[in-house]
Backbone:
């Protein structure tokens, strides 16, 4: 899989803000619920301090049975510090090499690094928010 180079990853916070504003105009938030995806990819990186290597992983699963179809991992140092709201500039440069190695093209990408504001989809009643008790006894 090839990745288009839209900008450099070695940038200042002010430059990152400008890139993020430009990219936000290109994002489609259309309702994709009518689509029937065959593959879903999830991406994330491990935490790493500035200058340390992080592990990035892309996991592609089949849909709807959610079986792992492919996994690619890489280790490299993120070029950008941790800055809330700008995680893509820290995580995507780590994830791109893993993504490029993929042989399976996903229809859906699940990532938390793009700065979208989270929405609450459900709320548990107060009694359900207590500690979870797990028992493996039979």
Residues:
């Amino acid at each position: 899989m090839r990745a288009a180079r839209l900008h450099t990853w070695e940038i200042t916070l002010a430059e990152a803000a400008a890139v993020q504003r430009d990219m936000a105009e290109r994002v489609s938030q259309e309702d994709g619920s009518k689509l029937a995806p065959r593959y879903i990819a999830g991406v994330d990186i491990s935490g790493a301090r500035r200058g340390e290597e992080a592990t990035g992983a892309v996991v592609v699963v089949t849909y709807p049975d959610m079986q792992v179809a492919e996994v690619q991992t890489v280790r490299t140092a993120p070029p950008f510090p941790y800055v809330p709201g700008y995680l893509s500039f820290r995580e995507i440069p780590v994830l791109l090499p893993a993504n490029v190695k993929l042989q399976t093209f996903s229809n859906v990408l699940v990532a938390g690094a793009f700065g979208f504001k989270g929405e609450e989809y459900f709320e548990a009643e107060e009694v359900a928010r207590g500690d979870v008790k797990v028992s493996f006894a039979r």
Notes: The chain has two helices and four strands. The mean pLDDT is 79. The helical segments are 13-24, 87-101.
